Amino acid sequence: MKTGFEAIDRERVSLQLPVRALCVQAGISASTWYDGLNGVKVSRADTLGRLNLALKRFKLARGGDPGPLSVHASYRFALVLAAFELRADAKAVLFSDPARRATADEEWLAASRVRELAFWTLNGMGGVKVSDVARAAGVTKQTVSKAIQRVEDNDDPNLKRICKKLEEVFW
Q: How far is the C-alpha of 25 from the C-alpha of 151, rounded, in Å?
């Protein structure tokens, strides 16, 4: 019996994407993945939808859209730089789903702060247009604009110090 999992798995293999990374991004367990792939259980449509959305995000992050690869690479670099400056786990930020809006989850909030600083760095210091930043991050232009504004309006002395340091390095 053919399943939607087989098509997703073919795409996952072509992207050289580990099962665990896909499952984390989709918010499902590895056992759910293997049960669906092997036909042990019939999966719900929303599970397949979440897996497809996760694949699309990975494709976007790896330059799967018509935009230039350099923007995607720059975005990933800005995320790693922001994670370093904020003393956060860069891998956790890369695999954090910005659309989840889990404001009660401390890990998600920390990743959100890192993304905001990355958006600010890429737009303000790198000169990348907001629309290109949004496309590379897989979010809307409004999300990027609001995040940049939050960084600029933030009164946290640590964040101000980091921004000043980055400005000195880039300018």
A: 26
Which of 3.40.190.10, 1.10.1750.10, 1.10.3210.10, 3.90.550.10 is the CATH number of 69-170? 1.10.1750.10
Per-residue pLDDT, averaged over 78-94, amounts to: 91
Q: What are the counts of helices (DSSP H) followed by strands (DSSP E) for the chain?
A: 10, 0
94-125: per-residue pLDDT in tens?
888 787 777 778 888 899 999 999 999 999 88
pTM of the model: 0.61
CA dihedral 90, 94, 98, 100 (to 10 degrees): -100
8 A C-beta contact, residue 151 and residue 74:
no
Calculated CA dihedral for residues 33, 39, 42, 48, nearest 10 degrees: 40
Candidates 29, 50, 25, 55; CA nearest to 41 is 29
* CATH topology (fold) of 4-61: 434 Repressor (Amino-terminal Domain) (1.10.260)
Q: Tokens 């056992």 label which residue? A: 31
Q: For residues 158 and 85, what is the distance between their CA atoms, to the nearest angstrom?
A: 10
**Cβ of 62: how many Cβ atoms within 10 Å?**
15
